[in-house]
From TrEMBL:
Domain Nitroreductase: 13-221
The organism of origin for this protein: Flammeovirga pacifica
Coiled-coil annotated residue ranges, if any: none
Lineage, uppermost ranks: Bacteria, Pseudomonadati, Bacteroidota, Cytophagia, Cytophagales
Highest rank taxon of the organism: Bacteria
Gene Ontology molecular function: oxidoreductase activity
Protein's recorded name: Nitroreductase family protein
Signal peptide start and end residues: none
Entries under PANTHER family matching the protein: NAD(P)H NITROREDUCTASE YDGI-RELATED, NADH DEHYDROGENASE_NAD(P)H NITROREDUCTASE XCC3605-RELATED
Pfam families attached to this UniProt entry: Nitroreductase (PF00881)
Length: 244
């Protein structure tokens, strides 16, 4: 095992969901900012980065949000709460960003015009087809039919509906959440991811954009006494890891 693997092994084994935080111990809020900046480097679908992270630091807001995390101790005692959200409406802005970055990249390496156009068409054509949706789900239905028909003849991506894209966004932000939690652990602090909250009320309290979907709220800080509720249990590895 390399030293990096040993360090990572320790980090993974030591990270636990901590439900009680120490109110007196020193807490460096800058570690949250650093960890979020690391989280933005997480892999994400098509590098679309359709995520936003909201830090709740003021005592008043933290209290209100914690009440709407069903008063879970992991929230009421957290020294800071971080919302991991996705924004489906950001797709065109993000596609444009990637397109511009791609064009800048072309200036540095020589690519034939044909290859450049092929690369650009990913964000110019494919991404809009996948990400553009309507309220009634008409486009979504059309994409499902198209994918099914093409899939009769050759391998085809099947997850093309509006709902599938929502899953895609939450997958990506969940990876960012994981990076964040390991980063916080490496900074000497603990975390607890939560999905037990009233998303509607919290969106209103924090005045979040209309299309924002809260994937997880993560409580963080220095662990308090009794913050780990029980021994860690997992089903046996041979029940979940298969060589096929
Ligand atoms: C998506 C997600 C949602 C979770 N929601 C909550 C929650 O609302 N409240 C809570 O106390 N723990 C929550 N957890 C923490 C899990 O209960 C915890 O990760 C699991 O029991 C394994 O324990 P460990 O994290 O200490 O290894 C959540 C975890 C995940 C990944």
């Amino acid at each position: 095992m390399t030293n990096n693997a040993k360090y990572f092994d320790d980090l993974v084994n030591e990270r636990r969901s901590v439900r009680v935080y120490d109110q007196e111990a020193e807490f460096d809020h800058a570690s949250v900012q650093r960890s979020l900046e690391r989280a933005t480097l997480s892999p994400n679908s098509s590098n679309m980065q359709m995520w936003e992270f909201y830090r709740v630091t003021s005592e008043d807001l933290k209290k209100e949000v914690a009440i709407n995390c069903m008063k879970q101790k992991a929230a009421t005692t957290a020294r800071e709460l971080v919302l991991f959200t996705v924004r489906p409406s950001l797709w065109s802005e993000r596609a444009e960003f990637n397109l511009e970055e791609m064009k800048k990249g072309f200036e540095k390496k020589s690519l034939s015009e044909k290859d450049q156009n092929r690369a650009l068409s990913y964000y110019q054509k494919l991404v809009p087809i996948l990400y553009k949706n309507d309220r009634l789900g008409i486009r979504s239905f059309g994409k499902k039919i198209f994918s099914w028909a093409v899939g009769l003849k050759r391998p085809m991506v099947r997850q093309v509906s509006k709902k599938d894209i929502t899953v895609t966004l939450h997958k990506s932000v969940a990876l960012a959440a994981m990076t964040f939690m390991y980063s916080m652990k490496s900074e000497g602090y603990d975390t607890c991811p939560m999905e037990g909250f009233d998303s509607k009320r919290i969106k209103k309290i924090l005045n979040l954009p209309k299309d924002a979907e809260i994937s997880m709220i993560i409580g963080c800080g220095p662990a308090g006494e009794g913050g780990i509720y029980n021994e860690r249990v997992r089903v046996p590895n041979d029940k979940v890891i298969f060589e096929v």
